[in-house]
Amino acid sequence: MSIAIIFTNKNPEPWEAALKTHLPETVVEVYPSIKDYAAVDFVLCWKPEPNVIDKFPNLKVIQSIGAGIDRIINTQTIKEDQKVTRMVDENLSNDMFEFLLAAVLGQLKNINLYQQQQAQKIWLPTNYNSIKDFNVCILGLGTIGSFVAGKFTALGFKVKGWSVTRKHILGVESFEGEQEMSAALNGTDILINILPATIQTENILNKNRLKQLNQGAFLINVGRGEHLVEEDLLSLLDEGHLSGALLDVFKAEPLPMNHPFWVHPKIQVTPHVASITNIKSAVLTVATNYQNHLSGKPLKFEVSLKKGY
Ligand code: NDP
Predict the structure, then answer these.
(1) What are phi and psi of 27, to 5 degrees?
(2) Whose C-alpha in 48, 107, 126, 174 is 20 to 30 A from the C-alpha of 292?
(3) What parts of the chain have a pLDDT lower than 70?
């Protein structure tokens, strides 16, 4: 019985150290330096290379260190006796809220516009908006989306949210399913996408949907790059239906050097940093899950492979 850490483009050392502290009796190795592949029954993953889990014949648990599991289930063949779990952590939700608050207030107060004007030494005051006048719509009222919706409502924003099933969050107007998506989008000034990437949500941020937002609306995508039809965003920005976008996630990461988003004046690019897993708190979930697995108890935050999130 042992744990393997399988990371791509992420330093595994802090995780290795944290796991060894919390599970001192357990062998923790970092792929590809694995002494005995057959001994590994639990892997900790971040963007694993395609089909890597096939190398572990006795693997039972695949633990994502992130909230999303799309980069795992789209690249691996999960066997019937294997379980996939994800990260749910208060810090992830709170850090996402803080990131989104910064983005939304920046838009309300024209901060991006003034940065561009400063680069050209232009002194040109523009009307700003206030929290009470702004309609926010959140796609995805899950662990993170519900938390963010509640916080934005408490600050005085008018908040709508959309999910598969209706939610009951104080002050938040909740919409469910395909049939109510237009009602959620209509009248929106800021659209925040925090959906998981699934077959159903792929390309959901398309011209047809984004056209339903208010004229001059702003898009924030912290879900996944697969949600956005990039050409549709560019044409809606060019024709002025959208005033701008802040994008944290992309189809290809890092964003390729020649991608038009890098230099578009109405697009702000952040390098997938909206909310980063906090090792100190997240390692407790991983350690608990490893112990639950050993003692045959249910895992925390196991995902539904059928739903894809
Ligand atoms: P959850 O699984 O808790 O929530 C997902 C939400 O999306 C649920 O409300 C679910 O509805 C809704 N949903 C799923 N499919 C559909 C659909 N077809 N139509 C309508 N609603 C749908 O996930 P989290 O809140 O923890 O995380 C969400 C995503 O945020 C992650 O998958 C990841 O992609 C992204 N993320 C990005 C980060 C970043 O730094 N950029 C950091 C962390 C997360 P219901 O509740 O009814 O099932």
Answers:
(1) -80, 125
(2) 48
(3) none
Confirm whether 22 is a catalytic residue.
Answer: no
What pLDDT was estimated at residue 251? Answer: 97
CA of 69 to the centre of ligand 1 (A): 10
For the Cβ of 143 lying below 6 angstroms from any atom of ligand 1, the answer is yes
Write down all domains in the chain, each with its CATH number in brackets.
Answer: 2-89+277-295 (3.40.50.720), 90-269 (3.40.50.720)
pTM for the whole thing? 0.97
Q: What's the pLDDT tens digit per position in 127-178?
A: 999 999 999 999 999 999 999 999 999 999 999 999 999 999 999 999 999 9
Question: Cα dist. 209→100, 157, 188, 212, 227 in Å?
Answer: 21, 22, 11, 6, 12
Give the pLDDT confidence score for residue 177 in this predicted structure.
98
How many Å apart are CA 303 and CA 76, to the nearest integer? 15
Q: Which pLDDT value is given to residue 266?
A: 96
Measured between alpha carbons, how far is 257 from 11 in angstroms, rounded to an integer?
23
Closest CA to 31 of 18, 21, 10: 10
* 174 Cβ closer than 6 Å to some ligand 1 atom: no
Q: pLDDT tens, 56-90?
A: 999 999 999 999 999 999 999 999 999 999 999 99
Name the active-site residue from 209, 224, 227, 293. Answer: 224
Residue nearest to atom 5 of ligand 1 (CA): 142
Query: Please, are residues 109 and 128 in contact by the beta-carbon 8 Å criterion?
Result: yes
- Cα–Cα distance between 46 and 87 in angstroms, integer? 11
